[in-house]
Design a protein that fits this description.
By secondary structure, this protein is an all-alpha fold. The chain is built from 8 helices and no strands. The radius of gyration is 26 Å and the shape is elongated. It starts with a helix and ends in a 32-residue tail after the last helix.
């Protein structure tokens, strides 16, 4: 083989090697890992946005419905608990840590939903401009949280599938042996039902023994049959 042919063969290897590696799925694992991390960051961003809305919401409700102290305290404590859960890039490959984070956020969703329901018993609160703005922002944020969680699950499902399918599984067992499956958000009962921020619901009965700060809307007596 001549020197020219040797150089040509080496050049062909240099050019074709990356194409062969890419065709075998070597880059799929890191590419999908980065995509899933981006979706995870968006989930955190939307939960943080919700957390930032809560103090103003609690203060607004407190000005019109101070009697709802137990609910207000629950919301404040649930928010504190949710923000105390430490999360980072490794959380999504740590099932225990991920579950702790999801449970804290779902608990906050539940108590927040109950807080938003009490506005039906307080006409002045229900018509307050600040409250109306906050409820609109909260509704939008909850929608974005649902979308972010769905997009994250899609990205993680694709990544986890890549780790166990051929030919990418070869790379997952060798050069990408540090790659771990990521944890999916589960559709828990509390997550599915919370928080309710549609304000067209039937007003719930007031708590026993509690007198609201402002009179609830009068309800006509049912017609006798």
């Amino acid at each position: 083989m001549t020197r020219f042919q040797t150089r040509l063969s080496r050049l062909a290897v240099i050019v074709l090697a990356p194409l062969i590696v890419a065709g075998c799925g070597y880059n799929a694992i890191p590419t999908q890992y980065v995509a899933a991390q981006a979706k995870w960051a968006e989930v955190q961003n939307q939960y943080q946005r919700r957390s930032d809305l809560i103090p103003n919401l609690v203060n607004t409700v407190k000005g019109y419905a101070a009697q709802e102290k137990s609910t207000l305290v629950e919301v404040t404590e649930a928010r504190a608990s949710a923000t105390q859960v430490k999360v980072d890039a490794s959380t999504i490959t740590n099932p225990a840590q991920f579950q702790q984070y999801q449970q804290a956020q779902d608990k906050l969703s539940g108590v927040l939903g109950r807080l938003m329901m009490i506005q039906e018993r307080y006409p002045d609160l229900k018509s307050n401009e600040n409250f109306l703005a906050l409820q609109s922002q909260l509704e939008g944020t909850e929608n974005r949280i649902a979308i972010a969680r769905h997009d994250y699950n899609d990205a993680v499902q694709a990544y986890n599938t890549t780790l166990v399918t051929f030919p990418q599984v070869i790379w997952a067992k060798t050069l990408h042996s540090d790659a771990k499956p990521m944890v999916l958000f589960s559709a828990t009962q509390s997550a599915q039902s919370a928080p309710t921020v549609s304000f067209d619901t039937t007003p719930p009965p007031p708590p026993a023994g509690v007198t609201p700060g402002s009179p609830p809307p009068s309800t006509p007596a049912p017609a006798s049959k």
